[in-house]
Hints:
The chain has 291 residues and is α+β, with helices and mostly antiparallel strands. The chain has ten helices and ten strands.
Amino acid sequence: MDVETLIEKSEKRDYKFFLEQENFLKVVDTLEKFEQGLEDTNTPQRREFTLFKRQLYKMHEIRARSVWEHEQFSFKVERNNLHTLTQANEQYCRAVAELNQEERLNNYRNKHLSEGAILQRKTLNPNRLKGFAAFASSFYAYNNLVYLNLYFGNTLPLFGVAASAMYGMFVLAEKQTISLIEVVKEGEYAGKVKIAVQDSPFVSHNIYANAKDIQSIVSVGEDDIGADDCEGNILWVKRYINESDGVENTQGGQFTIPADAFRDKPMLDWIFANKGENEETADDFNDLMVE
């Protein structure tokens, strides 16, 4: 085989020409000697020739296999590839499903938040529903006390009415419970965090604090098992200002955040974070989160 033919066929990638030669070992010897005779080893032509040669050898190896060898090799490769592809596809589908679920939950919660709110308690939460149901049952039983006395006597119906009313008052007794957290953007307290603290189911007062003075000290509820929207927190506010009298409380206070609340999770995570007293970038990061 002359050099001109070898160069021409290799540049055209004519695998068939080389594979149909009677003595393939002689073809290999010619190709190797030709490659050794090339002076510059770092040219694109040299790299292309080396790649062509390796592909040619691999094709000859495949053609030279027996039927049994080819079947065994193909079966092993296909089974390994299918197993790997199946695992990768399952992992990808799980990751996409988790991301989509988290995004849907965040969008659902954010739709129910008022503008500028970080946390907002649900109006008809389970505790209030239980309390109102207990008062309603107590009122209904008291209105039908005469009929209940005929069936159960005088003592048991009155005890049931009193117990139901006491349970309703116990469930609705909300003190030091946060119902709303939002960032103030205008006015005297611009840049501070406004926190609405419930004194009773219908009465609340507002306090204002810097974000760096707020942190979560304990998480309660089902947070340890990864349940979404089921975690309550105990919030510690190091110093704050009462809206009613404008006096700053430097002793701080602890407040309860209920689990049944709509949340802006990224901003709330920043509010819950432990922020040091001497952090110089806390205010800048807070401005970035607010934007």
